[in-house]
Design brief:
A hairpin with a 2-residue loop joins strand 1 and strand 2. The chain is built from 9 helices and 15 strands. By secondary structure, it is of the alpha/beta class.
């Protein structure tokens, strides 16, 4: 990835962290179709199950939800995250979008940075500067004035690119209207035939990627690790489904108090190893503490993820004790936290805070039974 692409990706991850803050701070709505919208310093902040933005021109837009649809002009930049993200009106500056399905169908004044399972820049769209896209399937059907960097399983180019293109994919297709005025750097598992009407052969650099056993093993281990985490999340959601509504309410009402409780709990957990070692008679208990520590860390992380995911998943708020609602909220919150954790320099801080706050929420409920009843009344 080029230096400019890395800078663009870092900017997008920073935008993802901003969306995390928006989703965490927005009040919950009882109706999944409602959109909670706030305006601050000329910027628009929106969240909900189905976010549909219409009306007057917005300055900067920050939106997160199950479905995010933009049917109003954005004067400056748009930052969006959701299962489905669709832009139907012009954006004056940059677009940052993440979701399962990302569809841009309007002109963009500067750069587009997008990630998703399917990313499409449609025929009604145009990009004045650069495009950085990562996904399973990427389709470029609108003209781009600057450079493009695309990485996915399948990439389709069916529009003119005035600058250069860097494409890394398993399958690369060139449709009607495809043209590249700069250079083309292609990396694929198989040889790619680039039509002469798209770009002259002397401006094409083709790289056939060798089979990498190390990458295969790494990917396999990643899949196995992900499946194990998924299973642990499901077990956690099932076992703790009746209490997660309480921890969510505690985190929402007193996050700083939970942070303090979490610091105390985690310090006691790790400090207990030293105490047990010094006491000598407690040495046999050290393996038990070491064994329990990863599960405590995961419990704290899953608890905070559930609190974040519940902002979007209405059933997790209205149906406490429902396994599927709790499990879905944990998965959605884990994705948002994962994006935030990828931010350079502060990503690890976010990960630690997520664990500590989650552990603190459980300790707060255990220490004060009266607080549990207060939480139940407020939920």
């Amino acid at each position: 990835m080029s230096t400019s692409s890395k800078l663009q990706l870092a900017r997008w991850l920073s935008a993802a962290f901003a969306l995390l803050v928006v989703a965490s701070c927005a009040p919950a709505r009882d109706n999944a179709g409602d959109t909670e919208t706030r305006n601050s310093f000329g910027n628009t902040f929106a969240s909900g199950g189905d976010v549909h933005l219409t009306g007057n021109t917005m300055k900067d837009l920050y939106a997160a939800g199950g479905t995010v649809t933009v049917d109003a002009d954005v004067a400056e930049s748009a930052h969006m995250a959701g299962r489905t993200v669709r832009i139907n009106r012009p954006v004056g500056e940059d677009v940052y979008a993440a979701g399962y399905d990302v569809d841009i169908e309007a002109p963009v004044g500067e750069d587009v940075t997008a990630a998703g399972y399917r990313v499409e820049i449609g025929r009604n769209a145009s990009v004045r500067d650069n495009v950085l896209a990562r996904g399973r399937t990427i389709s470029l059907r609108g003209p781009v004035t600057g450079n493009v960097s695309l990485s996915g399983d399948t990439v389709e180019i069916a529009a003119p690119i005035s600058g250069s293109a860097e494409i890394r994919a398993r399958e690369i297709r060139f449709g009607d209207g495809a043209r590249i005025d700069g250079t083309l750097n292609v990396s694929s598992r198989e040889r790619v035939d680039v039509p002469a009407n798209v770009i002259a052969a002397e401006r094409v650099t083709a790289n056939v990627l060798p089979a990498d056993m190390g990458a295969f093993i790494g990917n396999a281990l990643t899949v196995v690790f992900s499946v194990i985490l998924l299973g642990l999340a499901a077990v956690f959601a099932y076992v703790c489904r009746d209490r997660l509504a309480g921890t969510r309410a505690v985190i929402a009402s007193r996050p700083w108090g939970d942070l303090l409780f979490g610091i105390i709990a985690t310090s006691a957990l790790f400090g207990s190893i030293v105490v047990l070692t010094m006491s000598l008679i407690g040495i046999p208990l050290i393996p038990l503490v070491v064994f329990a520590t990863p599960f405590v860390i995961l419990a704290g992380y899953f608890t905070t993820a559930h609190a974040i995911g519940s902002v979007v998943i209405r059933r997790a708020r209205l149906l406490p004790g429902n396994f599927w609602a709790a499990f879905g909220a944990i998965l959605l919150g884990a994705i948002v936290l994962g994006l935030a954790m990828a931010i350079p320099l502060i990503g690890w801080v976010i990960a630690v805070l997520a664990v500590v706050v989650g552990v603190g929420a459980w300790l707060a409920l255990l220490v004060w039974p009266a607080r549990r009843s207060d939480v139940a009344a407020s939920g």
